[in-house]
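Run log, item B.
One chain of 112 residues. Sequence copied directly from the ordering sheet:
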Amino acid sequence: MVLHNSVIIINTKSGKVGIKLNQIVYIKVSDKNSWIFLVNGEKRESTNAFGKIYLELPKPDFFKCHRSYIINCSYIKSFTNKGLIVDKNTIIPLSKKLYNFFVVNYCEFLLK
């Protein structure tokens, strides 16, 4: 996996694919694969390890809000102590342990 400027290159079952960072809404791990949900409604399956993807993403733009989710802070509409709202049908879980750290990270993101 390679991060170049505003693009991340991921491994898929059919080869390597480039994805613009500003197109990623969130990433979810399921089984051993990572699912990347895009702003256009598509989702891409990656064989890259979830933790490895997170390490490559720029902070504070991306935040690991739960053991199974990474959120692009650009798409957060609002949040509660239980979840991050990205649209009326999508609420990303927010770990209780990470709530305070999220608030600090989100403020850093907004001030950037």
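Observations after the first pass:
- The CA atoms of residues 32 and 73 lie 24 Å apart.
- Residues 99-111 form the longest helix (13 residues).
Flagged for discussion on Thursday.
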